[in-house]
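Today's session is about reading a structure prediction critically. Students often jump straight to the picture, but the first step is always the sequence itself: look for stretches that repeat, for charged clusters, for runs of hydrophobic residues. Only then move on to the predicted structure, which in these notes is written as discrete structure tokens rather than atom positions. Here is the chain we will use throughout the hour.
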Amino acid sequence: MSDIPADTKPSFRSDMTVDLVKHSAGDSDVLWAARVSTAGEQSLAEMSKDPERSKGLINFLMRDRHGSPFEHNSMTFLISAPIFVFREFMRHRVGWSYNEESGRYRELQPVFYVPDPSRRLVQEGRPGKYVFVDGTQEQQDLTAGVMTESYQRSYEAYQEMLAAGVAREVARAVLPVGLYSSMYATCNARSLMHFLGLRTQHEAATVPSFPQREIEMVGEKMEEQWARLMPLTHAAFNANGRVAP
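Below is the predicted structure for this chain, in token form.
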């Protein structure tokens, strides 16, 4: 195989990035949507009122699972994460829209995922009752070394085919799911709450979840930004067991 050009040498990272690039979302969106059932067009007055005075209604809607008022808002996130995270992410289809960078139309950049020492490596127990533990230093070194070597070989093969004139959509087949990709993901608060209920662990959750850590890292960052936009809705979500209405 030919050497990889110096400007396309693989790099390695362990973080996930989430940027809120656009939004139309606030607690008042829940209130005017809910009150149309009793106030009709007069419910639009809620858009200019302080939602704090109606937080009891938000809690009622969450508690009794009147979910549709939580759909009248929108958040668009730009997410950078390994491909295997996106393949789990896109299991969430209702209330979500996605656009991801394409390996058919652009040359994919050599940025790959290698877990840092905080990532627990060893699974103990049986399905449904397992836990993850840190693992030994030897296991951590092995994981980093094997991943790095595999990524380098794969990207060399990719570059070799591109240099020979092979189409990008064919050459990309040799690249692993540890390659970083980027996508826009648009959702509303209801669909995001469903995602968070399944893809994060939280002491307030009444229904336990066992997400893969890497997608949980993305979920935590999305939740942090959503909580700033809709603090009353977020508080009601936690107060009612983190179950989407």
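Discussion point for the tutorial: The first helix runs from residue 27 to 39.
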